[in-house]
């Protein structure tokens, strides 16, 4: 099974056999990103409606709506520790959330919207890409930028 996000404001759970198993509704704008949380009982999504939503995969209900971004949410990722999520937004920030809904920290430093967030293998650091043509590595525990990588000449 796998999940897809869409401009039609929905998330769909698909069977590898080809059929749609479940449709998740609740976002009020384009859904930009979806990721499985933990072992697959939950998923998380990010939308242009500026929210992050945590969903019950089997039941289809939105368990929580995380609000705090001031721009559309382009990317969401499960940190992998069973507790935290990260979201990147057009508001130039990355936010670290507890899956229960509490905002833990806001990471600032990009000069344009954050497009992708990916965890690095150590469970402590992550990398972001942005419309400012940079990649940045971050220390999630300290809340700081470790390195800035430049080199792309366009977004």
UniProtKB/TrEMBL annotation:
SMART domains: WD40. The keyword Amino-acid biosynthesis does not apply. Keywords: Cytoplasm, Repeat, WD repeat. GO terms for biological process: proteasome-mediated ubiquitin-dependent protein catabolic process; ubiquitin recycling. PROSITE patterns: WD_REPEATS_1, WD_REPEATS_2, WD_REPEATS_REGION. InterPro entries: WD40/YVTN_repeat-like_dom_sf, WD40_PAC1, WD40_repeat_CS, WD40_repeat_dom_sf, WD40_rpt. GO terms for molecular function: ubiquitin binding. It comes from the Eukaryota. GO terms for cellular component: cytoplasm; nucleus. The keyword Repeat applies. WD repeats lie at residues 24-65, 66-98, 107-148. This is Guanine nucleotide-binding protein subunit beta-like protein.
């Amino acid at each position: 099974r796998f999940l897809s996000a869409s401009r039609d404001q929905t998330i769909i759970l698909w069977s590898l056999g080809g059929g749609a198993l479940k449709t998740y509704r609740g976002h009020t704008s384009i859904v930009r990103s979806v990721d499985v949380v933990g072992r697959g009982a939950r998923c998380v999504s990010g939308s242009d409606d500026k929210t992050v939503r945590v969903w019950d995969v089997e039941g289809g209900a939105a368990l929580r709506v995380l609000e705090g971004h001031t721009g559309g949410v382009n990317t969401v990722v499960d940190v992998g520790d069973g507790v935290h999520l990260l979201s990147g937004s057009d508001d130039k920030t990355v936010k670290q959330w507890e899956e229960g809904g509490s905002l833990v920290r806001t990471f600032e430093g990009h000069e344009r919207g954050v497009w992708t967030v990916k965890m690095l293998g150590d469970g402590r650091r992550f990398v972001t890409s942005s419309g400012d043509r940079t990649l940045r590595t971050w220390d999630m525990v300290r809340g700081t930028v470790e390195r800035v990588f430049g080199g792309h000449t366009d977004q």
